[in-house]
Amino acid sequence: MQREMTFTGRFIRRTMAVLCLMAGTALALPQTAAAEFPEKPVTLVVWSGAGGSLDTYGRKLAELLEREAGWTVKVDNRPGGSGAVGLSQIVTQPADGYNILVLTGTLTFGIAQGLIPFKLEDLRLLRAMQSEPSSLAVMNDSAFQTVDDFVTYMKEHPNELRVGGHSSGGFHQYMLYQLMKQGGFESGWIPHDASGKVTLALLGHHIDAAMMTPSTALSQVKSGEIRLLGVSTAERSPFLPDAPTFKEQGYDIEGAIWRGIAVKAGTPDDAVDAIQAAIDTVTASEEWKTFQEEQFQDSPDWAEAEFTERVQKDLAEQAEFLKSAGFVQ
Amino acid sequence: MDGVIQSLGVIFSLSGLVVLLIGALLGIVIGALPGLGPSIGLSLLIPFTYSMSPELSMLLMISLYTSAEYGGSISAILLSTPGTAAAAATAIDGYAMAQKGQANEAISISLTASTVGGVLGGLALLLLAMPLAKLALQFGPAGYFAVGLFGLTSVAALSGGSLVKGLLGAAFGLGLATVGIDPIAGTPRFTFGHFELYEGVPFLAALIGLFAVSEAMALAEKHACKAPMNKSRVGHVFMSAAVWKETWRSMLSGSVIGTLLGILPGVGGNIACWVARDYARARDPHPETYGKGAANGIAAPEASNNATVGGALVPLLSLGVPGSPTTAIMMGALIMHGLHPGPQLFAEQPTLVYAILFGVIIASLVQYLVGSLFLPIMARTVLLPDGVIAAGILTFAVLGAFAIRNLMFDVWMTLAFGLVGYAMKKLNFPVAPVILAMVLGYLVESNYRTALVSSQGDYMVFLTDPISVLFLLLSLVSILVPVRRAWRAKRPVRGGQGA
Question: What ipTM score was computed for the predicted complex, to two decimals?
């Protein structure tokens, strides 16, 4: 009995060894031949903490990269330093495409303000996958019905209204600045350190108007408790068909905060191509489309060339804004 | 009504109870480990909740959230190492009690108070969500500033013997709170080019360093000197009638304070625990026992930090706006299921909403059950030799520090704070005022300046906002009452035993 067991054991072990060897050669051949990306798990470095919109996007992307593209993906939250912590995580790793940064359009503000000690040239911006506009929002008991109402009032009563939004010197203040330039009025800015607090401040009448992403006050916008006077998209968003754009009211204000992915500069083209192909399968999937709709996200789907060009343009314009608004000398 | 019955069906189903038990187990462990708090715990859970129904995923998260608030007190009591920021206030009296050989009693008080706080906070959420949300909206920047100032007045109560040392500690903490990006101007201050400091000096690094690392050093030193150590006996879980009688008032006041501060975004348990302790102390006929192992010094903060769970869910469920990092993660999990929290959720998903509402209460009870099974094992930790405890504290402190943002920077920061804490111990400086001032510094400064920006520099904004006036008056009372008491004690009483 004992001997039989060991014999069977030995037999199994030998068979296993042979099988492994065979499998090994079989797998090794195509690997050396084509070097399919990815050969090992890929890390998505999300430059914000868990739970926010960027994190939700990053995790959905990870889930779909696993399901649709067959990758193995790990999500790594690296919040801090206005994104600099996540960015430094990427640039200190090899440029092989295995560390993909999940980032937002605050990148250009961070660089322009000198908060992110890196350059655009440190990254290859691969794809912008989501974007959300800003909007001028008031409570439904406000007298303002249009952007013009607001602009006219501000012209006659400079600095009188309390206007605020998320962060200081960021995207939403930049949108207000453009409105100020085009409308010819002066306004202060009350910064809030979280977008949810902007909604609360508006609901509690602690500010009179906000520049905010419509989805941060989704249920109030839907119920009509908060009125959007103007939205910074080119055309009316399918999610908010009743909310007019700035453009249709004669203000040339268009802008959105994108969310997308980037890798370290110098990542070889074949790895980048494989990532782009995988992203294509994700964006083509029904689940991604449903997710985008549920999240009220526009899908810019800018690939590398267009994405990079837009971001460079954003950086130049925002640097100009920050200089004239006194944020940087 | 259907929603109520169906939600109870989900909670009391086998999978519902299993999820609650798992959440409680994980929560207690994650809470007890320094650095790992409810928000890190929930973010670790997120990937596992995708495949669950929204109801079960919320039950799991709530259970972990609640139990982590209790779990934080275990290490605070046994090792003077607050496992969560909201357990910092518990460390003072809890550890003092454990040093007297009453670790078991201290944990049972904490467990009971946490359960009472969790249930009361949950009841408030269930019955008063809408009025509480309306109340939260009344708080503008001036109001938040005054609340923060009121919190700062409890420095006096935390100063131990010397008010001067307490104030110096608070000044140090306020100074640390100015590091980071300026809340109004958006430019970095005192960061010396380290972008790791843009969000400010990591609060958890200071907490773990000042409390845990310094205690590990003191323990190691004691071990080297072979000083005799008071070891406790491990006993029963239930609180005696006498302790109930002593602590029920502070559990009640702690729960109310926790619920109210929990609904305010950016305030929450980290601040509620100090305010609750201070309130209990001010009402106590024997305030001098605080800091030396007062039962109410555990009951009040522990009831309050668990009550913040129900409070924190108020803005999320009634307004669709998360008020804390933890509830933001829960919102993220709901969004992953294609659900958007807010008032319309009551109509669209009544089962889910009631599962959350009842879940907070049931999760607190499950936490009591799991906690009481854990207690005898936990309480045995103090029987270990000091050297082992010191090494254990240091290990978990470094792990916790790294877990904050996966940065070695935070580990070095924590160890540096450990040295500072050790020096403070040697010089008899209390560390609690530093922690309190760090928690409140940003709240006070950012809201003070926001209020002035909103009013275009008019200081009257602090006197025209009713909530601001209320809390400014409370701050004044909080400062003057002890002064008056001290003055009376010094003044000879005519015909009395003085003079």
Answer: 0.83
